[in-house]
Amino acid sequence: MTELTSLTLAEARDGLRKRAFSAVELADAHVAAIEQARALNAYVVETPDVARAMAKDADTRLKSSDARPLEGIPLGIKDLFATKDVRTTACSRILDNFVPTYESTVTSQLWRDGAVMLGKLNNDEFAMGSSNETSCFGPVINPWRRKGSNAALVPGGSSGGSSAAVAARLCLGATATDTGGSIRQPAAFTGTVGIKPTYGRCSRWGIIAYASSLDQAGPIARTVRDTAILLRSMAGHDPKDSTSVDRAVPDYEAALGRPVKGLTIGIPKEYRVPGMAAEIGTLWEQGVAWLKAAGAEIVEVSLPHTKYALPAYYIVAPAEASSNLARYDGVRYGLRQPGRDVIGMYEKTRADGFGAEVRRRIMIGTYVLSAGYYDAYYLQAQKVRTLIKRDFDDCFAKGVDAILTPTTPSDAFGLGEKAGADPIEMYLNDVFTVTVNMAGLPGLSIPAGLSSDGLPLGLQLIGRPFDEETLFSLGAVIEQAAGSFMPERWWY
Questions:
Q1: Which residues of 250-270 are buried (b: 16+ CB within 10 A; e: fewer)?
Q2: Judging by DSSP bridges, how do beta strands 456-463 and 216-221 pair with one another?
Q3: 78, 120, 196, 418: which is the annotated catalytic residue?
Q4: Would you say 188 and 201 are in contact if contact means Cβ atoms under 8 Å apart?
């Protein structure tokens, strides 16, 4: 059964339709793999009975030649997505044992297309983190190891459970969310593929909010093709989400193999940041060479306001978080801690329910929105955001089809290595990814090589709004040139 978990999503889809194995067999193989890999702490809820029931229904459809696009494909779901009758907590104590009576739009569309749910995946609390160490269920362990070392590494965050589960072959794909890089950075740390779609491409309804103007759902999978297949089911207009865009969803898988000859790829000089590992720069140059060999034209571009993106992001995101998280007060659902009066109940519930990183961001957000500081901080950050978007608009207006950058400034770091007293060091992990969220653009991370420690490194492609197809076609070129990277199964 181990061989079934080694299949890509596309291979499993084709195998199911050829009746080479059943959906129940495929689900059982992944259920067994999850049970053997609990040391990774990737899943916070396992739903084997749900998986088998959904797989049984899939087999019935497969036998009657009535297969839907994802018929029988087992997936993991980030614990930020509301799943009807299955615990959803955003990996925070304040949501305690909250069980939704409704389904998020993204997951409902996956079930509509025949996918099978294996369980809920670990994430940083309320998606606030870059290492998956802030979860109330404990940190996720990266399935990769440095050469000659058994030291535990982080899988990236906030979607660390999603990236680790995909890399460790515990699901064929996973849902994730990206507010400042939380799909792309963990994908890079685990040798997987992740796409943050254009803002508005996927519905946010039923996804627990962090920063509403930045959050966007997307998939993590093992290949560019698998990611394209998943995004087609996840994307689409939703009248329940006012930020959802009413545009037709293309067949992203069909974009793979499309010629990239004649496309213009921009290389932004501002992304050569101080302190970036030399091997990241070398990989970047290798990515340029691969695309050039495929016929793409390479040009240097300038994104002058990039240097302001990270500080602006860490004003905008906490400000929106402080507003979104005001609803968690112990009154309606989740944790409730008794107090002498209603104010005391609020204070004790929020103090006990929120972790340190969430409390820090709420306080920062409340501060920058407060009287006397709104103009100095939040308003200025929004102006910077407009300039960042204008930089990209100018670049695309000059004929650039996509932009190539590194995904992260380093490979995966050790558990506890950056979770100390200085949060700024952790925040710097998002230096290459936050601009994409600030501008609402699509970004794709593809595994492109290994570091000197034998750990995966990723390259990022940034595209025009709603032009994910070009990213997939370019990503496939990099993927084919770089090859695939999977960790050894040391956790069995």
A1: bebbebbeeebeebbbbbbeb
A2: unpaired
A3: 78
A4: no
Quick check: is 307 catalytic? no
What would the two tokens of residue 257 be? 């193999």
Whether 418 sits among the annotated catalytic residues: the reply is: no
The answer to whether residue 158 is catalytic is: yes
Residue 185 DSSP SS3: helix
Q: Distance (Å, rounded) from C-alpha 268 to C-alpha 233? A: 32
Q: Which domains does the chain have, with CATH numbers?
A: 2-256 (3.90.1300.10)
- Choose the catalytic residue: 92, 104, 131, 158: 158
Contact status, residue 458 vs residue 280, Cβ threshold 8 Å: no
Residue 7 has φ and ψ, to the nearest 5°, of: -70, 150
Which of these is catalytic: 182, 233, 322, 473?
182
Is-cis flag, bond preceding 473, omega within 30?
Answer: no
Q: Is the pTM of this model over 0.70?
A: yes
Residue carrying the six token digits 């069980």: 99
Query: What CA dihedral angle connects 326, 331, 335 and 339, to 10 degrees?
Result: 100
Give the dihedral sign, CA 474/475/476/478. positive
Do the Cβ atoms of 58 and 71 come closer than 8 Å? Answer: yes
Cα–Cα distance for residue pair 169/184, rounded to 1 Å = 18
Token pair listed for 91: 């990996």
CA angle 121, 127, 133 (to 5 degrees): 75
pLDDT tens column, 1-58: 569 999 999 999 999 999 999 999 999 999 999 999 999 999 999 999 999 999 999 9
> Rounded to an integer, what distance in angstroms lies between the CA atom of residue 86 and that of residue 104?
12
pLDDT digit string, tens, across residues 409-448: 999 999 998 876 667 677 678 889 999 999 999 999 999 9
